[in-house]
Amino acid sequence: MLSPQARRHFNLFRDPFQDDVQGPDDIYLSADQRYIREAMYQAARQGGWLMAVVGESGSGKTTLRRETIDRINREALPVIVIQPKAIDKAQLNARHICEAILYDLQPNCKPKRSLEALSRQVEKSLVESGRAGYTHVVFIEEAHDLLIQTLKYLKRFWEMEDGFKKLLSIVLIGQPELRDKLDERRYPDAREVIRRCEVLELKPLDGGLGDYLTLKFKRMGADITKIIDQDGIDALRQRLTEVGRGPRRNESLSMTYPLVVN
């Protein structure tokens, strides 16, 4: 990150890239990010969404999830957000998901011991909550670590309904490995969930790099033109673009993701 000498030279009292998101106004949103943010918001407001948000580490996935939850709270929407807290997502199973749903719907309710009884308990709680006017969304971070069997379980949760009304939306958030797990050619036995899951991918900043940097320095009360010029921004973009070799020599891979840029 920026050294103390660099901050002193440019008269910056804080590093504009450290703890840089304190509220929704601090988030840079390209057209791509706005679309994904709105999709996550609509998934929370309505039942029946099954989607995956995929992006490189540091591309802003978690920030968009946090902003969606903050927006729900700001607008006082009747939405119950469910977030399984298992540290090792590879160990997440049907029982863990049931317990997470039950905990966020009825924190003082004791989960049933058998999975059959627990599943009925969860469905009953969702139906009662839905009839009381609430919608429900499950956010699962680090979803690239989920086992294929767990992905198939999630479809069962997504299918829970009250009449024609689905009771849950599910949003998976993960790194590019998640996209690979949602490839039917690789995992044909998971096609029942893969064919129903919409995959949205966060792209690099690329052409929006200058606007992103402008916002970050503006937060600090700094004028970006006194710190870096357009040639410098172009050089940064070039530095963060990898050119392929051999058969891929005509291809390039941009790594202009917020964390890498920072």
Could you explain the architecture of this structure?
With 262 residues, the protein is of the alpha/beta class. 42% of the residues lie in helices and 13% in strands. The protein has 11 helices and 9 strands. The chain has helices at residues 4-9, 31-45, 61-74, 94-105, 115-131, 148-158, 176-181, 191-194, 209-219, 230-239, 258-261, and strands at 50-54, 79-82, 135-140, 161-162, 165-166, 169-174, 198-201, 241-243, 252-254. The strands form 3 sheets. A 5-stranded parallel β-sheet has the order 2-3-6-1-7, with helices on both faces. A two-stranded antiparallel sheet has the order 4-5. Strands 8-9 form a two-stranded antiparallel sheet. Strand 4 (161-162) and strand 5 form a beta hairpin. The radius of gyration is 21 Å and the shape is globular.
Task: Write a concise keyword list for the protein shown above.
five-stranded parallel beta sheet; alpha/beta; 262 residues; two-stranded antiparallel sheet; 9 strands; 13% strand; 42% helix
Total helical segments: 11
Largest β-sheet summary: 5 strands, parallel
Encode the helix/strand succession as letters: HHEHEHHEHEEEHHEHHEEH
Shape: globular
Distance between the termini: 7 Å
Q: What is the strand arrangement across the widest sheet?
A: 2-3-6-1-7
The chain-level mean pLDDT equals 92
Helix content: 40-55%
TL;DR?
The chain is of the alpha/beta class and 262 residues long. Helices cover 42% and strands 13% of the residues. β4 and β5 form a beta hairpin.
